[in-house]
Each structure stands twice: as structure tokens, then as C-alpha cells.
Hints:
InterPro entries: DUF6557
Pfam family, one: DUF6557
Number of helices: 9
Distance between the termini: 52 Å
Largest sheet: 3 strands, mixed
Shape: globular
Helix content: 55-70%
Amino acid sequence: xxxxxxxQSNSWLSVEAILLQLYPGEEExxxxxxxxxxxxxxxxxxxSEIEIVVANQKDDFDGEEYVDVSGNYKNPKSEEEKYSxxxxxxxxxxxxxxxxxxxxxxxxxELEIIAHCLFEMTFIGFEEEVIQEEMESIQGSMExxxxxxxxxxxxxxxxxxxxxxxxxxxxxGEEGDEERD
Length: 181
């Protein structure tokens, strides 16, 4: 079953109820989700070599459980294609042409799959143009980095260890602020 077939076989009102149950903080964005859902009903799907995988995961950093939406190549042709693929920057027509992984269909209801996919595909925004602009910005930043000299890289980058240390310090600072309130 493709994502397009899943979309066409379910109503927005049913999807909306599940979306709000799974992501209660998204109530303020519900009209954005509805517009995307309605656009998907009328877009023509493009064939894709990737299938959508929806799976329960546990965060390595804090142990929190979450639902991950990613893609797997059905017939990987390179080492890179053997690994899970991020989908948030994928054009919506391609999403629609992707098949849903069979294991995902067994673990989640159709409505849950649609809700999780809508959340993933709109993570950057509710307009494809905004999503593509963000992708181009990221690619530009990557090109800038690749064009830096070793000295510039050293000057402008920090280690993962230092980054995580900064995050921890910020979190501790925020917790202290909350305790004072």
C-alpha cells in the first residue's frame, strides 16, 4: 500500500483526531496539517525506490521513547542506501509514491501512520517551498564548511563533547530559573 492510497482511504476528521491525540501540542497548527492533507489528496504520486518505515525508537541520549518515520531503499545499490534515510526534505509527490513498510502496517493503524507521516513531512513547515528553501540553506552551509581551510574549521567549529557540555549547562541554567519562579 502506498502513502497516497493510505491518504485516499481515510478522512481528514479521523486523521485529525489521531494527530491531536498523538501530538497534542500541534493543536495550534491543525489547519496547516489539514491544508497539507487536502493537497496530498490531489497531488499525483511519483514512483519511489524508498519505502516508509514507522517504528518505535528509544533515544540514545535520554532514553525517551518516540516514533521515528524514515525511509529504507527497497533495493539498495550502495552502502549508503542500506541505512535509514531521513524523509523530511523529500518532495511530497515522492512521499505519496512510497509504499508503507509491512512491519509498520502491523505495528500501527493506518490513521497513526498518516499522522506520524504528516508530522514528519511538515517538521520544517507547511509549504513545500519553505521546506526546499531550508534544504538549500543547509546545503549552502555545508558547501561553506567544505570550502573552509583547516584553520577556519578549527576556529568556527566545536567538538561534540563541548557542544553536549554547553547543552547540559543551558539545561541546568533553565532549571535553576524555573526553581526561582
